[in-house]
Structures are given as C-alpha cells and as structure tokens.
Design brief:
Elements: E1 4-7, E2 13-18, H1 28-42, E3 49-54, H2 75-86, E4 92-95, E5 99-101, H3 103-110, E6 113-116, E7 121-123, H4 137-145, H5 147-156, E8 159-161, H6 162-168, E9 173-174, H7 180-192, H8 196-206, H9 210-229, H10 232-242
Parallel strand pairs: 2-3, 3-4, 4-6, 5-7, 6-9
Antiparallel strand pairs: 1-2, 7-8
Helix pairs in contact: 1-2, 2-9, 3-4, 4-5, 4-9
Length: 252
C-alpha cells in the first residue's frame, strides 16, 4: 500500500491519509506524495474539501531524528515539496490525533483548519533540540496564535494539550478522544456545502501573498537549520531526545 492514500468519500470530501504508523515521521518523498494528492484533488471537480489524517497513534512527529536519512539533512528538498501544499486550491482540514510535534506541527498548520481532542498535543520543540524551526512556522504560527504566543511556544518548546490549543487558535474544533477524524470530516462537510467557486475564491483572497511569505520563511529557516545542524548543541539535543533525558547545552 502507498504511504499516502486518497479516498473520494461522500459529500464532496476527500480523505488524504498518511501511512507511516505509529508516529508518521515524514521526509521529502512523503511530503511530495501529499502535494501530488492535493494537486490531483484540485483538478477534480467532485472534490470541494480535503481531510488530512494519519494512521496510528500520532498525527505526525516530524523528522525521525533516529534515522540517518532524517529530513533535517534535506531541508531544501523537503521545503520545495512543502511549498506545494501551501499553493493548493482546495480547503484542508487536518485531523490531529495524538501528537503534532516539530515539523509535524508545521504540517498541521499548513492546513486551513484542525480538529483535535483533549489528548492531542501540539509542540514546537525545536529549541529543545538545539535546532531552528521549519515548515513555514515563522509565518503560520504567529498568524494563528499571535506573535507573543508563537515566541512562547518556539522558545520554550512546551507541549500544548488540546483544550489550550483550542484557546490559542491552534485548532478549530475540539471533540472527544477517538472522534478526531469524525470531527474533521464534519467540519470539511460544512466547507463542502458552500458554492465551490465562491469557497475557493474567498480562500484565495484571504491567502493572498501566503505562498510568497512562506517561501521566504522557508529559505531563512533552511539556512538556519543548515547552520545549527553543525553545532554541538544540536548533536546534544538529538542525543538527549533519543535517550529521553534533559539536554546539557553549552552554546557551541
């Protein structure tokens, strides 16, 4: 089975699902498959909204730091594919079960809306890894949560549970545990009830300049990731994460 599947579904709502359970780590190839799916659905007159979901315990835990082929080693390739997600024309609702961590948070925030539950967790844990954030979070996180909250979340790397995520604007619907996918489909169904040409037109107006802003942010983010990846702090942050201990950063 492909690691990204597309199901047409009822009510003009398509389901795009990632299949890398349980954590659904991504790389450039996976994000490219997602972008291919989005673009194909953009061209499908029967599709008016997309639900983005994942198989397994977590929505997406970002990069697999324990893998030698980690996306941390290919930021520009990864971000070329990510930019295609932002350029898509169809509204997307992400079903965020479990954790959306690091780049996984960036993927969740690339969607127009997010459904979550009390047990969902959102975390921009980059500083705790000695790394710079990516996936356009420089643009999407302040836009959703405000500049000060974005600064808080990026500098502390703390975990935000579902209830707080709703209050901060990181998710749009909070449903019971186990009902996240159903909640996302319900919201996507509401979007699909609108006149499709009008929905796309309104969305495009509100997103004017977004792709260009994200493209600029991705260039800066990738450059900083290149620089910080060579530091001792990054090596210590990754090691501490894999060993489940508190990192000992030295600023070098």
């Amino acid at each position: 089975m492909s690691e990204v599947t597309v199901e047409p579904g009822d009510g003009h709502v398509a389901t795009v699902e990632i299949h890398r359970p349980p954590a659904n780590y991504f790389d450039a190839a996976l994000i490219g498959e997602l972008a291919d799916a989005y673009e194909a659905l953009d061209a499908d007159p029967e599709c008016r909204a997309i639900v983005l979901c994942s198989e397994g315990k977590h929505f997406c835990a970002g990069a697999n730091l324990g893998s030698p082929a980690s996306p941390a080693d290919e930021p520009r390739s990864l971000y070329r594919q990510a930019l295609r997600l932002f350029a898509s024309a169809t509204p997307v609702v992400a079903a965020v079960q479990g954790a959306a961590v690091g780049g996984g948070l960036g993927l969740a925030l690339s969607a127009d809306f997010r459904a979550a539950s009390p047990s969902s967790r959102f975390s921009a844990n980059f500083a705790r890894l000695g790394f710079h954030h990516g996936f356009g979070l420089s643009v999407t996180l302040p836009a959703l949560a405000g500049q000060q909250t974005a600064l808080d979340l990026l500098l502390t790397g703390r975990r935000v549970p579902g209830e707080e995520a709703l209050s901060l604007g990181l998710c749009d619907r909070l449903v019971d545990d186990g009902e996240v996918r159903a909640g996302a489909h319900a919201l996507a169904g509401e979007l699909a009830l609108g006149a499709p040409l009008a929905v796309r037109s309104i969305r495009a107006t509100l997103r004017t300049g977004l792709v260009e802003r994200v493209e600029g942010a991705l260039e800066r983010e990738a450059a900083e990731q290149d620089r910080l990846r060579a530091t001792d702090d990054f090596r210590e942050g990754v090691a501490a994460s894999l060993q489940r201990r508190t990192p000992r950063f030295e600023g070098r």
